[in-house]
Amino acid sequence: MYTSIKTVDVAEVIRHFFYMEANREKFSSYKAEILSWCSLPNQDVIQKASEFAKLRDDENPVLVWTVGTQKNKHYLKIDRWDLVTFDLNILYSRGINPSMKNDLSSVMGNLSDFEQIYSKNYEEFLLTTLPEDKSKILIAIARSNPKYKGKLELIDGAHRAISMLKNGITKADAYIGIIKDN
Asked: CB neighbours of 164 closer than 8 A, spacing ≥ 6?
């Protein structure tokens, strides 16, 4: 399934998320500020993530699972975060964007199957450039759901994962949240 490299502090996961968000066009005017948050001490990184969650116009799953949002406190379910190496075929997504909902549902969210069958139908997946350096690291939650085909629920990096699959890459690294035993 996956091999643990090391256990990490949630602040490391958030720093990675900040790095990825800072490089998105949506946040280009805030890039320097967002990247500056990465050099803060762990508690300050977590505080910045909480503030960032309040400013956003969406319920970003990484923020939901790392610091919580006003509507969602899933982060309380996380026991720890691990950096792992895993097979991309165990990755599933509950949603990429609304236009893909039916196609993603038909493959039970499995990104490997989605890439093989449907990704060619979407312009955003026609690019075959590979992510570089830190961009290759994804963020997921270790949990199975009978509605989905996979063992890791992707919460950040669907486009990067599809690009890796298109280029024949079968293994990747991810920060994964391990849910507490009930």
From this structure: 88, 130, 131, 136, 172
Distance CA 28, CA 47 (A): 21
Decide if 161 contacts 172 (C-beta within 8 A). yes
Position 97, amino acid: N
The closest alpha carbon to 92, from 126, 23, 125, 138, belongs to 138
DSSP 118: T
Backbone angles phi, psi at 77, to 5 degrees: -85, -10
Give the side-chain half-sphere CA count within 13 A for 65: 25
φ, ψ for residue 59, nearest 5 deg: -105, 80
Report pLDDT digits (tens) over 73-125.
Answer: 999 999 999 999 999 999 999 988 899 999 999 999 999 999 999 999 998 88
